[in-house]
Write a structure and sequence with these properties.
Number of strands: 0
Distance between the termini: 23 Å
Order of helices and strands: HHHHH
Shape: globular
Oligomer: single chain
Structural class: mainly alpha
């Protein structure tokens, strides 16, 4: 099965392997790994399938600026849901945009 980048990112985050997908240069430059993982988590929230489930820009700023702000759990990315709803990925053409709406 061909996996989208968003699916790979979600699976890595869900399995606690977020740092495997982060550029090694960022790992060297940013001293706190928890900050990188938090940014990754926020990124997953920003690509939720339903627009209503995505944080507003004001919420993103709050999430980035406050370690005490508890982040909600992101759900699976739309690509995975598309594959499950429409029978896999064999009919998906590279470079084609698909919408779940």
């Amino acid at each position: 099965m061909i996996k989208s980048k968003s699916l790979q990112a979600w699976e890595s985050w869900n399995e606690g392997r977020t740092l495997n997908l982060i550029d090694p240069i960022l790992k060297r430059v940013v001293s706190r790994r928890d900050v990188l993982i938090r940014c990754f988590h926020i990124g997953l929230l920003c690509v939720q399938e339903k627009v209503a489930d995505r944080p507003t820009m004001a919420s993103v700023i709050l999430m980035l600026s406050s370690d005490s702000f508890v982040l909600p759990l992101p759900s699976r990315p739309p690509y995975l849901l598309y594959a499950l709803r429409y029978g896999g990925t064999r009919n998906i053409k590279a470079g084609t945009r698909y919408s779940l709406l």
